[in-house]
């Protein structure tokens, strides 16, 4: 009996190995005409370039650096293999345009389902970011486009100022020159408050009360989510089941919070009217399945925090790191800020438009340190890149990180040079489709104006108010989880500005 079972298991295993071998043989042949890194021996046949990727990670580098090194070696289009998957990577300008704009190839369900439903739990669900069905995405995007329009954001300028000011008040209390401050953490709280307030009319005050429920659950939900990306087999490990159970509870609590908030808004009860939680929960039940779908709304509620909070905070934490390394940039920034604002603390929309150099500093930060370094899509027709035919159903990866550091596109790419974004009369300094930290085309970032506004206001007010010294003992490198982030979160010491 036992021998029979073992025999069956061996047969299934053999069948699996033969199937995988054949599958890998076929895809390697299919993409044989595209250049790319070699794989090592028999193991390399099965694992592809996984060993090289792991070497980068173990060496404290990020995968985006591996792509950069490969593009220096193989040019603007190459392929790499991870297990039984071949990905075509490109920073070719025409290809970037074709993939993201002209053809607008679909998002890859295998990747975005992990964002929507990690461990089969509804997280961002079918929200804007993770939605892979173009028709349903279009309807939702149309719903939200207006809310993020420049004119609407202009009307919120006071609130942007207020939230940044709240953070400045807190930083002032810590600016004694010897208290170590982790700027990423502080800015992350502000980013949550500003999204909560402007997008949902919520007053969260994470800046002074980081333990508030929303901040806590968003933070914890992201932590668990990252593990899925880098430890895909966690679900099969019984020792991790407790973690998974707790993680799912966190997501459920976060979604409950979102549901209640949305209902409060819908029922227009938020203006000081207290509604007990259990009443709200009952109201909620009655609203499900009516003409609007509350679960879909919760998807987007979470999406705006998950897509907007960390990206905004990472960018500003990177920016502060670069300012710490480049005092001459701070000097120039201050000259601009002083001439536009003087001692004024309120920054109007018109002021923001005048902060040209500040804008360049923000853009240069995103060139070097885009929080979302690469984007993958799946082709739904054959395309040609540099004369190479790329078959339909190919995973194609494009990368603003690699483009932004590619010498053919940006001179002295390792240097932080905001001036490169000061456009000359012909507006030709930045080559087309080489810089896209907010992505391009129909599925670009809906929050980009929002992020830039809060970013520029923060940078201007920060240099207007503080002298910063970086803690040089911190890890000044970068980590790549779901997003790129300064490894130690930009640790520094602050003093009130002297001159
Ligand atoms: C510096 C800050 C930010 C950066 C660098 C950034 C970058 C991006 C990128 C690259 C994408 C495309 C992702 C993909 O194709 O998978 C994206 C999409 C998105 N972002 Fe942002 N983002 C930022 C801030 C924000 C903010 C503040 C919000 C909202 C408050 C936001 C909301 C979204 C949403 C909802 C999407 C999905 C859009 C769609 O597919 O229709 N982002 N973002």
Automatic annotation (TrEMBL):
Q: Name one GO biological process term.
A: cholesterol catabolic process
Instruction: Write out the entry's keywords from A to Z.
Output: Heme, Iron, Membrane, Metal-binding, Monooxygenase, Oxidoreductase, Transmembrane, Transmembrane helix
Task: Specify the superkingdom.
Answer: Eukaryota
Per UniProt, heme binds at 445
Q: Which residues form the signal peptide?
A: none
Cofactors that this protein relies on:
heme
Q: Which residues cross the membrane?
A: 6-22
> Which InterPro entries does this UniProt record tie to the protein?
CYP46A1 (IPR039983), Cyt_P450 (IPR001128), Cyt_P450_CS (IPR017972), Cyt_P450_E_grp-I (IPR002401), Cyt_P450_sf (IPR036396)
Q: Which GO terms describe its molecular function?
A: cholesterol 24-hydroxylase activity; heme binding; iron ion binding
Q: Which Pfam families does the UniProt record give?
A: p450 (PF00067)
What the record says about family reads: Belongs to the cytochrome P450 family.
**Name the UniProt record assigns to this protein:** Cytochrome p450 CYP3049F2
Q: Which organism is the protein's source?
A: Brachionus calyciflorus
């Amino acid at each position: 009996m036992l021998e029979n079972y073992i025999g069956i298991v061996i047969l299934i295993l053999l069948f699996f190995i033969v199937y995988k071998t054949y599958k890998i043989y076929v895809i390697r042949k299919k993409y044989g005409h595209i250049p790319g890194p070699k794989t090592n021996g028999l193991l390399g046949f099965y694992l592809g370039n996984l060993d090289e990727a792991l070497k980068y990670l173990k060496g404290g580098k990020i995968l985006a650096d591996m792509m950069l090194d490969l593009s220096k070696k193989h040019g603007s289009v190459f392929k790499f293999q991870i297990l039984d998957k071949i990905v075509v990577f490109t920073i070719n300008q025409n290809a970037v345009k074709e993939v993201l704009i002209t053809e607008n190839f679909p998002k890859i369900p295998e990747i975005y389902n992990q964002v929507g439903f990690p461990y089969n739990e509804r997280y961002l669900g079918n929200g804007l970011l993770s939605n892979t069905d173009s028709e349903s995405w279009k309807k939702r995007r149309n719903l939200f486009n207006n809310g993020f329009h420049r004119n609407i954001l202009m009307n919120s300028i006071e609130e942007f100022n207020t939230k940044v000011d709240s953070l400045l008040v807190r930083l002032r209390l810590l600016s004694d020159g010897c208290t170590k401050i982790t700027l990423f953490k502080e800015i992350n709280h502000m980013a949550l408050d500003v999204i909560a307030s402007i997008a949902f009319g919520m007053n969260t005050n994470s800046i002074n009360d980081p333990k508030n429920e929303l901040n806590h659950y968003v933070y914890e939900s992201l932590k668990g989510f990252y593990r899925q990306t880098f430890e895909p087999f966690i679900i099969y490990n019984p020792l991790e089941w407790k973690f998974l159970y707790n993680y799912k509870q966190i997501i459920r609590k976060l979604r409950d919070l979102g549901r209640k908030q949305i209902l409060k808004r819908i029922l227009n009860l938020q203006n000081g009217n207290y509604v007990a939680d259990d009443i709200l929960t009952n109201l909620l039940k009655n609203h499900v399945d009516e003409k609007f779908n509350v679960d879909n709304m919760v998807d987007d509620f979470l999406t705006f925090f998950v897509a907007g909070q960390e990206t905004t905070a990472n960018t500003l934490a990177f920016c502060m790191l670069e300012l710490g390394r480049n005092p001459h940039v701070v000097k120039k920034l201050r000259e601009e800020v002083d001439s536009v604002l003087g001692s004024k603390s309120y920054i109007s929309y018109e002021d923001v438009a005048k902060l040209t150099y500040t804008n360049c500093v923000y853009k240069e930060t995103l060139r070097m340190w885009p929080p979302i370094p690469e984007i993958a899509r799946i082709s739904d027709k054959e395309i040609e890149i540099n004369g190479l035919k790329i078959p339909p159903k190919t995973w194609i990866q494009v990368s603003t990180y690699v483009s932004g550091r590619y010498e053919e596109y940006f001179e002295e790419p390792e240097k932080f040079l905001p001036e490169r974004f000061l456009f000359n009369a012909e507006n030709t300094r930045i080559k087309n489709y080489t810089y896209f930290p907010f992505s391009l085309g129909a599925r670009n970032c809906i929050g980009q104006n929002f992020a830039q506004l809060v970013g520029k206001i923060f940078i201007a007010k920060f240099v207007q108010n503080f002298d910063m010294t970086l803690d040089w003992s911190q890890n000044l490198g970068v980590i790549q989880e779901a997003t790129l982030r300064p490894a130690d979160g930009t640790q520094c010491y602050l003093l009130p500005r002297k001159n």
